[in-house]
Amino acid sequence: TQLVNQIAAGEVVERPSSVVKELVENSFDAGARQIRIDIEQGGARLIRVRDDGGGIDKEDLPLALSRHATSKIATLADLEHVASMGFRGEALPSISSVARLTLISRTEGSDCAWRVAADGTERDFDPQPDPHPRGTTVEVRDLFYNTPARRKFLKSEKTEFEHIQTLVERMALSRFDIGFRLTHNQKEILNLKPAETPAEQEKRIAGICGSAFIDNCVKIDFASSGLELTGWVGLPTFSRSQPDMQFFYVNGRLIKDKLVAHAVKQAYQDVLYHGRQPVFVLYLALDPALVDVNAHPAKLEVRFREGRLVHDFLFSALHRSLAEVRP
Ligand code: ADP
Ligand code: MG
């Protein structure tokens, strides 16, 4: 099982930011309102994610670290399938096979929290009491300590942390209702309060994209024939034009898609500024039946059932919204 876990980890845990992604998604699933992420040495030494979600019952703690009975990886041949379909129920066991993992959790109404631990070879599934408040903390230390070849592939502390920060920013832009705090080597990097009102949301955008962006942007809010586009597009007066400041979410999920990129760029260049890459944070909401966002969870791919319709909607939504503010 350990070998299978480690091979599975090769698929799910590419680098520290992949661990952060799995842990934060678990916190989302647990209904967290506040997520705190502490990183040391780019995540190689420590990744700690704490939430105030529903928690895990004492008797379920060992289960959370065990490969599920219905494991999708019975044989190596299954790996390919899992790699394309995602790892449901595989993340914590996989991570614990290539790091030292501690899981502490407390559910509502429990007198105290309970702690279990697992690392590459040793599993301590006898829960110990802990003063942790309601919610869950997962602590991942010494990633790849027992797979030196993988550890060697980690980039510099700075680069690995940049991957983590980018990921957290992307996730924070998809869940305004959740507060995020990110530290690196005890230094606070992001502190984003839950943002309910439009003003609070713009504050979060400013915290991530810079206040110059929010001061030089057009707010988009457009709906027609069941599709809805909201968000912000930077004006040409906003001079920072980095390709990584293009955030596009479909039903709350960040995607990268040629058709989308084309429609946005076309409308932007038509109306505002030819020859420049637009900067944007945009949210498309549409009938989930019209889109397959799980085509490849790791690759941000998306498949629209009616590509033409989506393209034309985006183009005309942006064209009209931007034309209203054309200088
Ligand atoms: P999956 O999320 O696909 O079910 P994971 O390995 O990521 O698999 O997590 C295993 C289980 O542990 C989850 O199904 C959930 O029950 C529990 N769990 C993990 N993280 C948390 C958390 N932060 N809060 C509450 N439960 C959690
Ligand atoms: Mg999970």
Automatic annotation (TrEMBL):
It comes from the Bacteria. The keyword DNA damage applies. One of its GO terms (molecular function) is ATP-dependent DNA damage sensor activity. Residues 205-323 form the DNA mismatch repair protein S5 domain. Keywords: DNA damage, DNA repair. One of its GO terms (biological process) is mismatch repair. GO terms for cellular component: mismatch repair complex. This protein is involved in the repair of mismatches in DNA. It is required for dam-dependent methyl-directed DNA mismatch repair. May act as a 'molecular matchmaker', a protein that promotes the formation of a stable complex between two or more DNA-binding proteins in an ATP-dependent manner without itself being part of a final effector complex. Belongs to the DNA mismatch repair MutL/HexB family. This is DNA mismatch repair protein MutL.
